[in-house]
């Protein structure tokens, strides 16, 4: 009886070993299945940002034709919007060693400065690595940023610019949107960020609130369009006065 039981156990063990070998041959290893491409080079695992860096999948630059189709517009500047794929844990303050909060998390969409970050190809798609300090606005619904869904980050302030003015042939002053030579140096505060963190982790208060009219430094901030209206995103320290 003992001999029979031993033979049965041996046969069962052999079958289990063969079955495991077949499954292993059919399925790729975990390391191979997690391979990614970074600028044409195969890397194992996912690209993970450090400190307060963000990995952003860049939104395509598209233009709408009269028929409603979307085509790439080569005349456009590179896109400055995208989806955050991964985020770092947060920057370590150099003096206090306190780990500051990350302003944007994976899954959120962002608008950032057009000259910020490092371009790269990740899995053959355009991505950027930028710092959360370079993010102007974040929003939850990637198809479109609107005044209703955007939120300034850190000490950023969203300001509604007044209409630009130009004299027509008759000498009457009319509002226009195409004049880029002179930008207004004042506007109305629409939204404010939560504030920038100090070295101890506390938020430093912003001295303006929605509804305030403000004067700010010339050429400060970044102009954007939301709902076909012109706005400025500017850091709070570039605002000079309010009324």
Structural overview:
With 243 residues, this protein is mainly β. It has 2 domains: 23-145, 10 Kd Chaperonin, Protein Cpn10, Chain O; 151-243, 10 Kd Chaperonin, Protein Cpn10, Chain O (Roll). It has 2 helices and 21 strands. It has helices at 2-26, 30-33; strands at residues 35-38, 41-44, 53-58, 62-64, 70-72, 81-87, 109-112, 118-122, 125-131, 135-139, 151-152, 156-160, 164-167, 173-176, 186-192, 196-197, 203-204, 213-216, 222-226, 229-235, 239-242. The protein has a 7-stranded antiparallel β-sheet, with no helix packed on it. The longest helix is centred in the N-terminal third of the chain and has 25 residues, at 2-26. It is globular, with a radius of gyration of 27 Å. The protein starts with a helix and ends with a strand. Mean pLDDT is 80; it is low at 16-33, 63-76 and 166-177.
């Amino acid at each position: 009886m003992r001999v029979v039981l031993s033979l049965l156990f041996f046969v069962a063990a052999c079958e289990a070993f063969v079955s495991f070998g077949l499954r292993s041959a059919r399925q790729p290893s975990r390391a191979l299945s997690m391979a990614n491409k970074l600028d044409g080079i195969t890397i194992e695992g996912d690209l993970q940002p450090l400190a307060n860096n963000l990995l952003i999948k860049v939104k395509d630059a598209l233009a709408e034709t009269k028929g409603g189709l979307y085509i790439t517009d080569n005349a456009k500047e590179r896109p400055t919007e995208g989806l955050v794929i991964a985020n770092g844990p947060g920057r370590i303050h150099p003096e206090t060693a306190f780990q500051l909060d990350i302003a944007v998390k994976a899954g959120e969409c962002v608008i950032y400065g057009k000259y910020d970050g490092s371009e790269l190809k990740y899995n053959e798609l355009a991505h950027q690595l930028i710092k959360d300090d370079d993010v102007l606005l974040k929003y939850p619904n990637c198809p479109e940023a609107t005044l209703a869904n955007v939120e300034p980050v850190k000490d950023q302030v969203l300001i509604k610019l007044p209409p630009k003015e130009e004299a027509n042939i008759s000498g009457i002053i009319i509002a226009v949107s195409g004049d880029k030579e002179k930008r207004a140096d004042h506007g109305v505060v629409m939204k404010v960020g939560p504030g920038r963190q100090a070295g101890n982790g506390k938020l430093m208060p912003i001295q303006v609130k929605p509804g305030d009219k403000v004067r700010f430094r010339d050429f400060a901030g970044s102009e954007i369009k939301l709902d076909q209206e012109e706005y400025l995103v500017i850091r709070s320290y570039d605002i000079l006065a309010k009324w």
